[in-house]
Amino acid sequence: MAKARAFQEIPSSMAAQMAADGALAVWPAGALEQHGPHLPLGTDALVLDAIIAGCREELGEGFNGLFLPTLCYGKSPEHLNFAGTVSLRAETLLSAANDVVRSLVRHGFKRFVFFNGHGGNAALLQSYAFDLRAEYDVQVYNLDLWGGGFFREIIAEVFPALTMKEVHAASVETALMQYLYPHLVGKVPPRGELKGSDGLRHGWLAEDFSPTGVIGDPSLANAEVGERIYRDAVARACGLLRALAVSE
Amino acid sequence: MAKARAFQEIPSSMAAQMAADGALAVWPAGALEQHGPHLPLGTDALVLDAIIAGCREELGEGFNGLFLPTLCYGKSPEHLNFAGTVSLRAETLLSAANDVVRSLVRHGFKRFVFFNGHGGNAALLQSYAFDLRAEYDVQVYNLDLWGGGFFREIIAEVFPALTMKEVHAASVETALMQYLYPHLVGKVPPRGELKGSDGLRHGWLAEDFSPTGVIGDPSLANAEVGERIYRDAVARACGLLRALAVSE
Amino acid sequence: MAKARAFQEIPSSMAAQMAADGALAVWPAGALEQHGPHLPLGTDALVLDAIIAGCREELGEGFNGLFLPTLCYGKSPEHLNFAGTVSLRAETLLSAANDVVRSLVRHGFKRFVFFNGHGGNAALLQSYAFDLRAEYDVQVYNLDLWGGGFFREIIAEVFPALTMKEVHAASVETALMQYLYPHLVGKVPPRGELKGSDGLRHGWLAEDFSPTGVIGDPSLANAEVGERIYRDAVARACGLLRALAVSE
Amino acid sequence: MAKARAFQEIPSSMAAQMAADGALAVWPAGALEQHGPHLPLGTDALVLDAIIAGCREELGEGFNGLFLPTLCYGKSPEHLNFAGTVSLRAETLLSAANDVVRSLVRHGFKRFVFFNGHGGNAALLQSYAFDLRAEYDVQVYNLDLWGGGFFREIIAEVFPALTMKEVHAASVETALMQYLYPHLVGKVPPRGELKGSDGLRHGWLAEDFSPTGVIGDPSLANAEVGERIYRDAVARACGLLRALAVSE
Amino acid sequence: MAKARAFQEIPSSMAAQMAADGALAVWPAGALEQHGPHLPLGTDALVLDAIIAGCREELGEGFNGLFLPTLCYGKSPEHLNFAGTVSLRAETLLSAANDVVRSLVRHGFKRFVFFNGHGGNAALLQSYAFDLRAEYDVQVYNLDLWGGGFFREIIAEVFPALTMKEVHAASVETALMQYLYPHLVGKVPPRGELKGSDGLRHGWLAEDFSPTGVIGDPSLANAEVGERIYRDAVARACGLLRALAVSE
Amino acid sequence: MAKARAFQEIPSSMAAQMAADGALAVWPAGALEQHGPHLPLGTDALVLDAIIAGCREELGEGFNGLFLPTLCYGKSPEHLNFAGTVSLRAETLLSAANDVVRSLVRHGFKRFVFFNGHGGNAALLQSYAFDLRAEYDVQVYNLDLWGGGFFREIIAEVFPALTMKEVHAASVETALMQYLYPHLVGKVPPRGELKGSDGLRHGWLAEDFSPTGVIGDPSLANAEVGERIYRDAVARACGLLRALAVSE
After folding, report:
1. Which residues of chain D are within 8 Å of residue F39 when distances are taken between CB atoms?
2. Are D203 and C128 a contacting pair at CB < 8 A?
3. Residue C22, Ramachandran bin (φ over 0: left; ψ between -120 and 50: alpha; else beta)
4. Measuring CA to CA, which residue among F85, F58, F65 is closest to residue F143?
5. Could you write out the DSSP letters of every residue in C19-52?
6. pLDDT for C16-33, tens place per residue?
7. Other Cβ atoms closer than 10 A to A208
8. Could you give the CA distance from residue D44 to residue D72 in angstroms, rounded to a whole number?
9. I need a labelling partner for C45 at 20 to 30 A (CA). Which of C54, C110, E189, F222 fits?
10. Which residue has the higher pLDDT, D51 or F149?
11. How crowded is the C-beta side of C118, counted as CA atoms within 13 Å?
């Protein structure tokens, strides 16, 4: 069966047809930021793209939705002191989100999913969904890999012994990369003695917690577990996207 | 005992002294937005100001922190179709937050709390705390009344029979207003048959859920319960603020 | 008799009704900035709020107007070198003014008063009133405490011996604070030997004139005079607001 | 004797020398906006340029100051409903002023005069002078033709019978244009019955006062009077500029 | 031999090392816009990515440069009336370019190539290279596929009979896509009778020239020619990049 | 015969009439930037204004177009290290262009020419013409003196021996200034040994090429040649403008 469609791969005429059919427009947002000594800078977008590829296979051509190309840059001020991190300012990311929606509204798209693979984008895009709803009268849903408990169940299943929070470049991300892009994964560092936080959310820098940039314990990861996490993520995302695609 | 200090009430020389002493600068952010047929537009800021007044009493003059005046406007696009709602654009709220921090950094303030009383501000201010940390090398903590489970325990205690989510103008807000500002509270509407949401976060409008603007069930509220919630909120906020004030 | 209404204290439904009745929306703008060694940082907003409280009493419930909550921050670059001053950039203040008007225009409000208690906001808000008129087709009036001679007559009456210009933290402000908030007023400093200006308006810093931040002579102030000034201010503001409320 | 210098007419090396000598940088700002049925759209900039030409003659080469080219566009929302008016948004004009100052600060210029020939620019540029002072540590003076009583004395002298306020396209502007650019002046319209204002400053549109766009009584104007006004303006401006050039 | 490196695929530590070695940072910019009835919306980014993949193979690991992930969105107002086109506003694209450079300057990167695959981005990015040079003291080079005659020689060679200008979705793009992504290419439309332009550059819309969105004659394209164009493009781009990588 | 009209010189009523007649609105953009040791900072705007004056004579009153006043400032980051250069940020210049078009669109103008006399503005204004077309549905043409080969033919004719590229303050500009403004031209410097560029467009600074700020060889210039260039420029610009004025 053919895959669910992507804007990049279809001609304008098919986009017009799908807008008329009330298709979901799915906008993936990643990041380019340090992921510890063992994972590449592009981890967030690479993982997201792999999950989307899996979803497109599973959802198939009949899916009433369309995937936009992934924005491979995100808001990452917390990692800017590590080389290679590129951070969009909050205002730039809001402008880009606005441009995506405003452009497609002209063509009749009315329902959007911001499919976000970077924790640092989540709150901003969740907040802005309200502004876009009010400005353009469109539905904007937030599907966040790192938020809303997306990985909660599978973590409980595959890492029953996990004792640290999975914040950044820890076991879930490491395992996913080991499965999906093993040639890009280096030697997994030991868990560090992380300095404590304060009970309240606050604006941290990665180096507050760890000199390596890893926040959590990556040592439980391996490729087999990565595959399980990956399959769970694809299934879960498909479930959410299918529900939206028929919910109107 | 004298109250914890407020910027509005002290001369510049004392602000200089407190900056030198490493004082916390607490910035309260409210909103002006519809709160159903029974609560006033200013509910968020009024409740926040009452909690801050309680905190200032309880923390006392020895508290190494200072309260900024409340921003009585917030980001409320979800309520803009109800008269009297004033919504700052996301960019305006970010600019204001930036101006507050940038101004006080000049004087040596290094630690900030964004004490937020409006759910619609929370994600944006949480996200921007990271940008401010990276731009000005300051600590920005987010103390959100509507987020992070601030009211979770007291709700379980005072509303054991609660069956709907407390989203907007429901029992907690109603009870707090009945206790704090009874003359501003009208007849409490019955719980409505709320239309369902979609499982994912999304950018909603208040009218998606309820024609009255109430999202939840306000019918459990009364002033005595309001007092219990209020005392719990003051105690909880004081606990968090005290921990920060000594945590450096 | 009940007071003139405030947005913060009424439900959305009453705001809708008053918009339909052509009510004035009054937006008060203050500041948080140094006011010499004897007055608190919040002087501008504190005085403004007291005058508005007096106006609300005097105008009564029959007044066809509504008071918005005070913006307690203003544009104060001239005081930024004194600790505790928070200055909004010009662009931020314009954005906030735009957001207030744009929000309320949706609900049918057509007539606004920018009731400004900080000299540093006056020119900017006066100028922007034209832009708002043209953009939204609304009337925006500027009622400035520090501009347009608001205090001119009462100064001539209560300070006949005044020989210096009342620019900042001088006798009018000191007297008002001594009457309204005596517990927040410190020892009044002597008049300083102020350095001269240049005949033209220019962008000054407070320290150009005085190391204490006082620009003028506060030594004539006392609480009784403060009361006379206050009563005059309330009466004068009520006169202007009443004239607008019936002038359509 | 050679004229006072203009940036447009000197090479970069001379600008460097004058910056080192502490020269004033004078930035003229005009407008392009309707001026009634009888005056051209460029009246503000044309009059300003003529006054500057006169000043450059009178001040001579020894003047320690330099004239920038005139910005022929200003903020004119109040005239936008008359054809040919071009209005810069407030934010655009602030950005341009910022760019001028920021550029020249790099070269050592420290003292600026905003020489403004359009009433609609005055408040904005006066206000922004403070921001520029604080941001770049430069002096910015405001020399406004339409503000600060620049024409007050000469009006009293040449138009003793004047009974209406000189707001726009009235006798002073008409007379100046009749003297300076007689070929651009059409038949002077009679004074109109102007609709009243409200006692407070507010954001008006020209058509509020007059269908012709004239606000005031242009009928007293003639070229001889225009010459007297012009000579007075040149002398007055030279006096102010000379005082600044030596005041450091 | 291993490929030239990509930011997405290396850990932060290697980015730090390459910054220290003076590596080029190559930022690819594409677009999402209509490409006639036969080519997909993502043509610009798809072609660019394929050329970059070829360059990475040919340049090899020894290349002192690093490829950033492709921005798959560009400035495309001229195609906004065709469904599926997403256009970033000029200001958004400038902000993104600024963010990329500003982020990497922190880590020591000093030399950038904006490798642009969309004609509509070219002038803007060329212009902004000057601003970035002046703001951050970095070198920014513009390598534009559609500008500077990149395809001129190969067009002369492979399409000697070409009689129309290659503007959009014509023979070069069609042939490249037929070779690189044949499954995404539909039936090639005949050349249209294009409406004439005006001799001067101007801001056109695609529909000014052609109802199909094709501007030029795609009918000469085939996959073999596409391969020749592709190989030429990779070789040419490698030549330019190698020259830059050693030119310091 | 009377000259072609200028906005500055006509009353609003005539602008209304010409908008109704479909007149072209011509917006000239110059710069204030170093032009070597021998030419004044205002060279770009001075030359442009002289060409426009010539065009207005030649086109005559019957020309269905109107000249706006020249913006004497442009985007010149590449010259900012030379004293007296004033550079508008890219965003400021875009905002100004937007304001000009948006203002005149209200009055019915539909066709614009950006007549640009500064190379550093060209790409930005060419690019933005597309955005303005899409936003306001107006035609924006770019007539650039330094781009599109405007001077190519005359250079071949008058400087057959020219061996260096005419980039900045070289023979064409020098000759034009010698003819048009001889009193503002200093001793022409010898051609310098210019440092090479890199084959690709890039963001340069003037000092990359030459310590004097001259980029090219000004030594071929003289006033007679300047007159020939000037007459050619006027004729060529008139040809282009006339073609546009009748092309609708």
Report:
1. 11
2. yes
3. left
4. F65
5. HHTT-EEEEEE--B--BTTTB-TTHHHHHHHHHH
6. 999 999 999 999 999 999
7. 16
8. 8
9. C110
10. D51
11. 36
> Strand, coil or helix: what is C117?
coil
pLDDT per residue as tens digits for the range C120-150: 999 999 999 999 999 999 999 999 999 879 9
Residues 6+ apart with CB under 8 A from C17: none
Chain A residues whose beta carbon lies within 8 Å of the beta carbon of residue B91: 91, 94
Is residue A89 within 8 A of residue A75, CB to CB? The reply is yes
Write out the two tokens for B86: 């004033």
What's the complex ipTM?
0.96
Say if the Cβ atoms of C103 and B80 lie within 8 Å: yes
pLDDT digits (tens, 9 = 90+) for E30-71: 999 999 999 999 999 999 999 999 999 999 999 999 999 999
* 3-state SS assignment for residue C134: helix
DSSP B32: B
Residue F196 pLDDT: 59
The helix/strand count (H/E) of chain D reads as 8, 6
CB E107 within 8 A of CB E119: no
Reported as a single tens digit per residue, the pLDDT across C37-73 is 999 999 999 999 999 999 999 999 999 999 999 999 9
Other Cβ atoms closer than 10 A to D8? 24
Q: Chain E to chain F, count of Cβ pairs less than 8 Å apart?
A: 131
Average pLDDT score over residue span B12-24? 98
Q: Which residues of D touch C135 (CB under 8 A)?
A: 77
Shortest distance between the Cα of F141 and any Cα of chain D, in A, equals 19
Q: Strand, coil or helix: what is F233?
A: helix
CA F88/CA A139 separation, integer angstroms:
39
| Among chain D residues, CA nearest to C121 | D127
Task: Name the stretches of chain A with pLDDT < 70.
Answer: 1, 192-198, 247-248
Q: Name the strands in the sheet holding B65-67, side by side, starting at the edge strand that comes first in the sequence.
A: A201-202, B139-144, B111-116, B24-29, B65-67, B5-6
Contact B142, B129 (CB under 8 A): yes
Chosen for mutation from A85, A93, A131 (greatest number of chain B CBs closer than 10 Å) is: A131
